[in-house]
Specification:
alpha+beta, Rossmann fold, Phosphatase 2c, domain 1, 6-stranded antiparallel beta sheet, 5-stranded parallel beta sheet, 18 strands, 24% strand
């Protein structure tokens, strides 16, 4: 029989250590020898005289360690090992094959079947004790890894649930943001204002819109809030209230006259009022660029303030293209700053394009940006006979054809197109 050892006093209750051992051998004498020693070493031992009986035991409860003879009638040790490893159970057991075989090809066959180690008969007490100790270390590491994987899986599952909740909220937020631009195209007499708004994510920091207090008077704008994501989107929602097309009493672009009707404020005044409001709000670090215009539909006179926004593009009916505007400082960046406006006259058939830098800073396949020159090329590809809405859709389509497919939209893309057709 195998001699007693110092393993008698070892604590086998440590998480991941070997506590329950299954001994499988058709020889009753060999089982007795192994079982006696294992019990003296403090292990709980279960016996099986065949591979079939061992499988039934494993189906009921997986042992921590299996000592199985290779040569047995019926299901031999190799077949038992394969069947054991083929179970759907995630519990892992350290498997040692007991064999008189020592040829390399036979050892390789055992390893391929799923065995972790081999012991050559007759079994040495010291070697068995050493192999069990090695198995304990490996089993402990395996179970620690399994536990960590379980924790990671649970964490990833929780993160997925949080992500799904955020994603659902962002989808709803996008619907709310889209409600700030209820109409993408509207006729004012024979003239038209059309809008384009393409966020690079669920929600964006661009805002476009139009307002009209009465016949022959309209205002329209293009705004780009600094940054991206939720914070910028919240700012656009706030600006949507400041420039509401439905509630003139809240609209900073309007002023009530003689308690009877509303009139459009001058663009430079609108920029100053918005700047004062943002500066007064402590804790807000965001600012925005803006191109804001008012137009007299009888005379074709357009007044514009450009606050750090890209220079608007004037598309003359005869095909001439001209960037206009004086630049200016973004709104909400510097306190008590003055804004100046520019005035020009549009002829019947002229168009005015206000756009965000999502166009000009779009990345191309070669890594460069589209730039204003590239925008001119895209505009020239769009049909001049198209309606305003079709023109914007076509312009955006041409942008998607030249921008980098790898990076896609890296910034929100938006535009406002005013088409003047006279009184």
């Amino acid at each position: 029989m195998l001699p007693e050892s110092s393993m008698d006093n070892e604590d086998h209750t440590v998480a991941g250590s070997i506590r329950r051992v299954l001994v499988v051998d058709d020889s009753r004498l060999q089982r007795r020898i192994l079982v006696a020693s294992l019990k003296k070493w403090g292990f709980e031992v279960v016996e099986a005289e065949s591979g079939e009986a061992a499988m039934e035991i494993c189906q009921a409860e997986t042992p921590d360690l299996i000592l199985s003879d290779w040569m047995m009638p019926g299901m031999n040790g190799l077949e038992f090992c394969r069947a054991f490893r083929a179970r759907s159970s995630e519990d892992y057991a350290y498997f040692i094959l007991l064999t008189s075989k020592s040829e390399k090809n036979e050892v390789a066959e055992g390893l391929d079947a799923g065995a972790d180690d081999f012991l050559t008969k007759p079994v040495s007490s010291d070697e068995l004790r050493a192999r069990i100790s090695a198995g304990e270390r490996i089993l402990r590491m395996q179970r620690e890894l399994s536990e960590k994987n379980r924790i990671v899986s649970e964490t990833l599952g929780e993160l997925q649930r949080v992500y799904d909740a955020i994603d659902k909220d962002l989808i709803q937020a996008r619907k709310i943001q889209e409600s700030l631009v209820p109409e993408l195209s509207k006729d004012f007499g024979s003239s038209t204002v059309s809008l384009l708004l393409k966020p690079c994510g669920h929600i964006g920091g661009d805002l476009v819109g139009m307002i009209s207090p009465g016949v022959n008077r309209i205002g329209f704008y293009s705004i780009d809030v600094s940054g991206h994501g939720i914070t910028s989107a919240m700012m656009t929602a706030r600006l949507g209230g400041y420039l509401s097309s439905n509630y003139f009493d809240q609209n900073v672009g309007m002023e009530k006259r003689f308690n009877r009707f509303y009139a459009l404020r001058q663009p430079e005044e609108v920029a100053s009022l918005l700047n004062a409001r943002l500066i007064a709000d402590t804790g807000i670090e965001e600012y925005f660029t803006m191109a804001y215009c008012i137009a007299d539909l009888r005379s074709g006179v357009v007044k514009i303030v450009q606050a750090g926004h890209p220079h608007p593009l004037l598309l003359r009916k005869n095909g001439d293209l001209e960037f206009i505007g004086k630049g200016g400082v973004p709104v909400g960046l510097v306190p008590d700053i003055g804004y100046s406006q520019e005035e020009f006259v549009m002829e019947r058939g002229d168009r005015l394009l206000l756009f965000s830098d999502g166009f000009t800073e779009a990345r191309l396949e070669d890594g460069s940006m589209l730039e204003p020159e590239g925008l001119l090329e895209l505009v020239q590809k769009c049909g001049s006979e198209q309606s305003s809405k079709e023109f914007l859709d076509d312009l955006y389509w041409h942008l998607t054809q030249v921008m980098s497919k790898e990076h896609g939209l890296e910034d929100d893309v938006s535009a406002t197109l005013f088409e003047y057709q006279g009184p």
